[in-house]
Hints:
It contains 24 helices and 8 strands. By secondary structure, the chain is mainly α. It is globular and about 65 Å long.
Amino acid sequence: MILTHLRLLHPNAGKYFIVKLNIWENARMHNKPLEIITSQEDSKEQPSGLITPAETECDIFTSPRVVPMVLNNRDSIVLPFDEVPGPKSLKYLSTLRKYLTEIGTQITVGFLTFGLNIGSLINKRKSIRKISTLFDEFGPVVRYVNPVGTDIVLVNHPNHIQKVFSLEGEHPVRSTLESLENFRTEHKNRLYGGIYTNQGQEWARQRSAVHTPANNLITQHAQGMYEICEKFAIKVYNIRNYQDEISKDLYKELHKWAFDSLGLIMFSKNFSMLDTDLVYSQCDSSWMYHSLEHATEAIVKCETGMHFWKFFTTPAWYILVKYCDSLDSLIGKKVLEIELELTMKTQNNDKPSLDSLTSAMLLHEDKLTIEDITTMLMDMMLIGVNTITTSMAFLLYNIAKHQKIQRTLYNEVECIHPSSTVHGIEKLRESTPYLQACIKETLRLTPPIPMLSRVLPKNITLDKYNIPRGTLILMSTQHASLKESNFEDATKFHPERWLKPDAEDYHAFASIPFGHGARKCLGQNMAETMMSLLAIRVLQKYKLEYHYGDVNPTRSFIARPDRPIKIRFIDQI
């Protein structure tokens, strides 16, 4: 009956329908897609009497042409910035941006921005495991909404870190220590900051005056640095108690050692802060050391949590201004003394000696001002002394905690003579591969600066999310180095990992304690040499033991041990 009705509509409709039905049934049985003839050439092969393409235009039985959707490149998908995962409570706060200027106060802004966003990241009372939970919940790219400014993106994957560094160019921009920068621009009325806080061309100019002399002076002052290490070993012998432990904080003694060693390179002067009696004197060196201690503590407090010091004078800000001002004046006095010495040598037709970093900068072709040199040296002292101290403290802690590693290390360094240490400083690290592996492993577990930052100069795609230019990227390098996907037994102190043939297979950005690229730490060679010299001298004289709880790094802008390190220094037999 159906075919009868079809013939009424068109004399050949029944034949056409039967042919199509047979074609569909044949394709279904052989699991092939239905082929529909649409071209004129193919129509010639149709049986006579079938409907032509022209006739089908008004036919109610024409079959629509179906074109399947095929995604040729899934990687081409880029998700918008708003889709980057992160804490929802902070995203809700973003709706308040347009109202804050009308109903908020500066205190409210400070609370929202620093109390809820950044304070939770850099609070020194929180361990790295607190940050790892963010990545566990939201993935390798986490967005922190800033209600009153540029949003912050936190990353921890080596590929993402590498991609961020690949965009930095010749003049990378990173976040600065706002409290220190504010002290210089407002309190000291200086246009430029130091080598740590400066950006752009001014930073590049200062870096060129420091980079080469800093590395050359290590060999020149090797003898003096070794003598400081010897003085530290003797002081440990004199101040240890009946349990062979240092009754006072070992970290502070290491801080004095780093101050003396760095001071030797910066000023070609031995400050002798390891001399206990001198610590309580009223000399410039003693005041400089105490100003450095108090200024560091004040900067940590100002940079942690809510920045109320921006709105009124807090106790931490008052201390920062007082002791940074004192440190600036004392360093400036040393610079003037060295400049006077160089002037007198020039007048006497004597060749000026480049025996210190200060003299090298004074004689640099760019003609840096006294204020510029003072600011640069102050930055190096604030950052360098504290980072080297932290790294050395954790190195001794790891050696004392792992006796098998210590025995292997002792066998490597026990026969190193002081003369070979001093005169062959360039070959020292080549002859102590296991010690260098211990240093590298310590820096992997506890990098002194656990987070690196960059401000994106252009748009970037991270994990298929579009991150716009101008976004502040915080790279959690410490968390990256503690991931099992990057290192086996990542939380264990295992220096042998760096001596295996497959050590080159580790991702180059899985552990970068000194940073990377143009703004890589200028003091890497200096820090590794100082740590090597002290470790050799201490191990030649003492066997180290540690019998207390685990020591973890704090979450301040420069990590420190979160508890006193009570190491036993037992005389080697």
